[in-house]
Design goal:
homohexamer; Hypothetical protein af1432; globular; mainly alpha
Chain lengths: ~180, ~180, ~180, ~180, ~180, ~180
Amino acid sequence: MTRIADLLFEVRMLKDLNRTGYAFLGAGEESIAEHCFSTAFLCFVMARLEPGVDAEKLISMALVHDAAEARTGDLNYVHKQYNTVDEPHAVSDLIHGLEWAKNISELIEEFNQGETREAQLANDADQLSLMLELKKLKDLGATSPESWLPFVVDRLRTDTGKQLAREILGTRWDEWWTRGYSE
Amino acid sequence: MTRIADLLFEVRMLKDLNRTGYAFLGAGEESIAEHCFSTAFLCFVMARLEPGVDAEKLISMALVHDAAEARTGDLNYVHKQYNTVDEPHAVSDLIHGLEWAKNISELIEEFNQGETREAQLANDADQLSLMLELKKLKDLGATSPESWLPFVVDRLRTDTGKQLAREILGTRWDEWWTRGYSE
Amino acid sequence: MTRIADLLFEVRMLKDLNRTGYAFLGAGEESIAEHCFSTAFLCFVMARLEPGVDAEKLISMALVHDAAEARTGDLNYVHKQYNTVDEPHAVSDLIHGLEWAKNISELIEEFNQGETREAQLANDADQLSLMLELKKLKDLGATSPESWLPFVVDRLRTDTGKQLAREILGTRWDEWWTRGYSE
Amino acid sequence: MTRIADLLFEVRMLKDLNRTGYAFLGAGEESIAEHCFSTAFLCFVMARLEPGVDAEKLISMALVHDAAEARTGDLNYVHKQYNTVDEPHAVSDLIHGLEWAKNISELIEEFNQGETREAQLANDADQLSLMLELKKLKDLGATSPESWLPFVVDRLRTDTGKQLAREILGTRWDEWWTRGYSE
Amino acid sequence: MTRIADLLFEVRMLKDLNRTGYAFLGAGEESIAEHCFSTAFLCFVMARLEPGVDAEKLISMALVHDAAEARTGDLNYVHKQYNTVDEPHAVSDLIHGLEWAKNISELIEEFNQGETREAQLANDADQLSLMLELKKLKDLGATSPESWLPFVVDRLRTDTGKQLAREILGTRWDEWWTRGYSE
Amino acid sequence: MTRIADLLFEVRMLKDLNRTGYAFLGAGEESIAEHCFSTAFLCFVMARLEPGVDAEKLISMALVHDAAEARTGDLNYVHKQYNTVDEPHAVSDLIHGLEWAKNISELIEEFNQGETREAQLANDADQLSLMLELKKLKDLGATSPESWLPFVVDRLRTDTGKQLAREILGTRWDEWWTRGYSE
């Protein structure tokens, strides 16, 4: 097992890098790692709502979909207008020398293609992960999430994703513990 | 799909709660969500190193193993000496009303039992996730990781986990990009 | 004087640990030490408003009422539903070997019993300390303090505490310097 | 009770203002409120080590000794070379209109004079509070505390203060929980 | 070139010191260095809007106008009521032993006098720099900027400054990239 | 003056975006705005050491050299291996519609070409700005700056830059105020 520690240290960098979109939103903060956790958990949930999907692939795809960002950086919407990212090269360097890791490259490729059911759900999870943050900030009084949310909703492609979105937008971020609170 | 947004908002709280051990370490910082991401990725890697394991269960277990901590809090070693945590009750409330989510409870139970191969690997991943942080901090000059690392190593139970530990401890945290750096 | 440095280093940990309720509030931040300072100052004020109380005991009680939290952690409302805290054991370990420190244990015990005038005032100060933070955040536009405040008000037991609450809720957090501001 | 909420809101500002010395130290961070808590707790301990002192006055003095800093700011050693602070004026405005609060002014005056036993102990506590932070940072590998500590030690005037200093400097910051740690 | 590194290290301290006004505003954060950058860029712009001014002097003045604050600290409105700052002494020590640096002293003096066209524009830039932050925070939902803005507007003295203010107040902070955003 | 507020709000974004290299260094933090301030001040100093240069151009160049990074993002060494940045397009959009702002584009172009004396000095200032941060962190005990510094030194092209580097590396970051400190 050579270079495997390099892979582990490279992927842990995602904890040290923040998603740059929040600077433009003007509220909130989230590391790439936190975003990936959230996306993977959403996929875990989706796998239970759609028993026919390949759960392992769906969750794994969510887990690794931004794995190359330690090398490429997290580029937000504006940054993407001015940068051409060579993600395949980054992924190739990420897994270099680790024969079993070719799977990471395949999962990222499938995610980017967005054609399979798993890829569509994972892409929706990617958006729903952001939606949860926007809803929380909106509930707390921040003004910018209001204008960002419609765009996020519009990006959803699956019925499962859209249904989850309706549920999220119709629930306060702290209801899970405030509902029925009394002293 | 009722209460599902509650579940999603509850689990996203893991991004807002820091692991309390770092205050005692005196260096570094990590949210529970970041730790879970790291643990899940380690399990993704382990699943490729041990093709015989149930990859979906292993990765899912890592993903949800601390899911109850939004309700229980993250208690470090010292805190645990003075608190009795009713995790089953927290898990029960976490999944209440979501019939498909019983799986979360089973995964957490299996993780805590630590008997199956998947549970042993996931528990090792839990430790290796911390080890990656300690190694990084140690490489950067912090003095406390040195005394914590032996305890972390001793908790490992699987050969895969122990081998990964040797690799991690023998690699600098930034080697993945500094190796062969030149201008 | 043995173990006394241990006690001092243990209590200074309260600066490194944040009160977890703010993560659930979604706004603000405060260390346990800051909370204790605020509570103690409120008691200093209360001692002047009620000359008949034992000022030394009142202020000291506020100072040490959360001293065990370096060991137990700061558990918010939700965390408390799932944890049983053995505070007496934590306090016992805190003061172990320091004969003069038995007073800390007695003060915490009296505070928790909430029966004496001093204990009732100190408990109200504990709430008013939070109220000051909620009022500040509410004045700044955060939406969540609004729903938390009525519960805090309801917990007050003394007339002094209730009167201070009315004053706090009727004053803007920055009035002390903005009142009469001109250029 | 008029203007009392103003006083409470003014003093809570000490949580929002950091002690500027740490920027010059290059490590650590502490709000004025945290420092005052620490100083007051040290005085609580000193009162038990020297039963003859006026405990209420000693602890109260520590609690309010920096109360004027919301108005004056926290000026570190360098800043003080270039600023003349009118603390009496700030204290006067702090307590304006609150007849019972004249005590705050007296306590600050006595602290600054440094003549009474209580004032000497409180001034030593002020230094020991910083010493605890420097010792922690030194134990963690920071290089600057080493050069600051001798100056802090030299400022101590009481035997009690000097003895506490010896204890602090001879104890690791995390010994209170690491001593005897095993798994 | 002796003492020149001292000067460079002293001025870089402005990155480590925050402007204290934001603690009183209750929102936002900015280092002195960030403020100086912003002020200098505004002067760069003003120099293009008023071709007759001495651009080098204007921009340089903005760059160094707070250079003495590593020594004096950044005192906000309230702090200034209770402190007498000896800025000339601080500036003298800043440039001590560097014959070519007398220019820094002259620029700061001219800025403080506020008589020349460059000084008036630089002083307006100083205010507009704050205005940009207040407008951003106001757009994001913070309530306090609303009451601060009129005072900032009133301090402007030049037509160029007032025109820039009108433009700033009539533009959303994120319009530069949200204008015409579509997917 | 249309779109001018857009330009001002766009450039102020540099305060909200951190330089990503520090995540890879593992120590320190700096916004792009802080870096630009530092670079501009270094150029102010260089202009006095080399009276023959066009001071206005030199300082302005430093001020705007990263102005496009609100749009492109700050890409560190690793990120640059996987991204192709279209800076001219970003600069063009930055100044769009502002006839007088063509100067910004020219300055950035000249800086990137690195041919004129001013451009060479500004590029050295860009490196010296980082060097000051690395030296501070190294003095404080961080281990990674040691390996980064040689690369930074090697990038310097001018005698003035190299002389300043020698001075910086031979001076402790806090000497400017600790030199001759006594009580």
